[in-house]
Design goal:
- The complex is a heterodimer of chains A (180) and B (496).
- Chain A is of the alpha/beta class and 180 residues long.
- In chain A, 49% of the residues lie in helices and 11% in strands.
- Chain A contains 9 helices and 6 strands; from the N terminus they run βααβαβααβααβαβα.
- In chain A, the strands form 2 sheets. A 4-stranded parallel β-sheet of chain A has the order 4-3-5-6, with helices on both faces.
- In chain A, α8 links the parallel β5 (135-138) and β6 (159-162).
- Chain A is flat.
- Chain B is of the alpha/beta class and 496 residues long.
- Chain B folds into 3 domains: 33-56 and 341-421, no CATH class; 67-318; 434-494, no CATH class.
- Chain B has 22 helices and 12 strands.
- Chain B has helices at 30-38, 41-63, 68-84, 86-99, 110-123, 135-139, 142-148, 158-165, 182-196, 208-225, 251-257, 278-289, 322-326, 342-346, 348-353, 364-375, 392-396, 403-421, 427-440, 442-452, 473-476, 489-494; strands at residues 103-107, 128-131, 152-155, 228-231, 235-237, 242-247, 261-267, 271-272, 297-302, 312-318, 464-465, 481-482.
- In chain B, α16 (364-375) runs parallel beside α18.
- In chain B, 46% of the residues are buried.
- The chains are: A alpha/beta (180), B alpha/beta (496).
- The A-B interface holds A 15, 18, 22-25, 28, 69-70, 72-74, 100-102, 104-121, 145-146, 148-150, 152-153, 176, 178-179 and B 1, 3, 7-8, 30-31, 34-35, 38, 44, 330, 348-349, 352-353, 385-392, 394-395, 405, 408-409, 412, 428, 463-464, 466, 471-472, 474-475, 477-483, 485.
Amino acid sequence: MVAPSGSCAGSVRHQHAWVADEAGDPGLAAAARETASRTFELSEFLVDVLGVIDVGAHFPHRVTYHPTCHSLRVLRVGDRPLRLLREVGGIDLVELPQAEACCGFGGTFAVKNPDTSAAMLADKMHHVLSTRAEVCSASDSSCLLHIGGGLSRLRTGVRTVHLAEILASTRSELPEVPAR
Amino acid sequence: MTQQRGVNQVYLGLPTAPPGVGQLRGDRPFPAAAREALGDAQLRRNLAKATGTIRAKRAQVVAEVPDWAELRAAGAAVKDQVLANLDGYLVQLEEQVGARGGVVHWARDATEANRVVTDLVRAAGADEVVKVKSMATQEIGLNEALAEAGIAAWETDLAELIVQLGHDSPSHILVPAIHRNRAEIREIFLREMARVGLPAPPDLTDEPRALAEAARLHLRRRFLEAQVAVSGANFAVAETGTLAVVESEGNGRMCLTLPRVLITVMGIEKLVPTWRDLEVFLQLLPRSSTGERMNPYTSMWTGVHAGDGPEEFHLVLLDNGRTATLADPQGRSALRCIRCSACLNVCPVYERTGGHAYGSVYPGPIGAVLSPQLTGVADNPSLPYASTLCGACYDVCPVAIDIPQMLVHLRSRVVDTRREHSRVPTPEQAVMATAAWTMERPARWANALRAARLGRLLGRRRRRISTLPPPLSAWTATRDVPLPPAQTFRDWWAGR
């Protein structure tokens, strides 16, 4: 099972069995552990299972990458996404300052603690803009929804594009991105 | 599978920290307190600068230790061993302290602990005490209790002095005045020192050296005059009855050695089994807390000795909700905490809101798991949600407390507690129940995703959604929502 999300793969791998245990269902917990053992985040699957770093993609844009909290600290994917991105043809990959800081999404946190969430987002956007990138990428749609929602509100013109979409881009087929 | 009853057990009979005494509860929920703090630009600058500096120092000195992971595992294991056998170790400690001339007092909660200390100070015939920086005494509101009894408690740690003189409360476990900058501290010293003792020199600058010198002069007379000192403890060794305090300024050493009577208030979880176990923690603590390889002052004392140090030593063992915390298998590892505050310094929420927003003397990630357990989750229901679960706290914790997972667990306890108290679901519970129903069957989920395409109607003109009704307005206040795609992934996959 491959998930294009550090958060989802992390949940399957680290939380499902625990939740089943807490609910007092050892059968379900065993099944969850078995599923966890064959669940991968996209960059893990490409680099570790398929052994591919150059996927033959082409994406001629200035890109900065936000390594999402759960891919970083729950799954520990390390620099796998960056290794994949460095091989993309035409890409101008620029380092994001304070990349490892949370963007402030946090699921329900974004609406339960909207002011703190917005303060974290503001700092993340500041760093994205400081790179002068056209595209901010990540491997979690939820974080991209948050960062993209802020970048859109401020009319920055910076687009958010999932890692999978960049890796799937070729000279003839570019990802569908919302018009500015 | 639907669970009518909560999956968490209810721990009847174990008392939590009582309300109305001490500082473990805020007067308003975290989001409201955080909102106010976020509006204070000076506070945010002070916090960002201070946490950024400590964070970098910690990272550097931790990286130097080749066996940090093993040390961390050892720290967790020693603490777990203590927690699993706490009853035995506490009795052993009591015997050892008593055998060496100390007196042990047991305090069920803050009220009892305050009464014990007040009675001891009165019995010593004193109307003032000097204090070593102590979280336990902040937790129980000892200074306020002593003041009510006509006893003045003087803080001697520099940062605690700043907080006390500023009629303020601590906002960080290790750096209680982290929310203040040098200029603010100079003003507090000039304004307040004269009212309670030796005035600050009128030409005081905001140079750290000058500020420290002013504090040193102000405090010196207190050290020399005080008959009674009150301290907390970083560790207690069950095997030997030894107490340990680590500090950076030497004020602790003065308090622990000069006065005639020494009273130590300590949470019951602060034990280590043997002298040798200190080796682990005296490496973990300074590197995690101040980013130092070794803390400047490590004071240890065992009972009393004629002609050397205090003539009387009293140890007050404080529960105040710790046994209730111990009763929760998913929450008890919060009691491993050695109060290093590494988790505060890396927390993106703490960095922006500061400590006061948490309403408890224990702020930040550890506070968000500890305070609700000490008080019972019903009294601190917003704290388990004061985190994005980004995981930075767990990474730096020197005793490997899995704070994010514990926050998730405590959220479930909050929900269970609400459910026990009211049959009427909150709007959030209704939304969650709907989500659970939808996710229970793949077909329902696929239909829901297709239905989400209706959202396209909301942003027809501008290709983005900028306003939504409450509670989602909390999102659209600062963020747009992209239009859902015309085709769902599942439909695209099926028709490939």
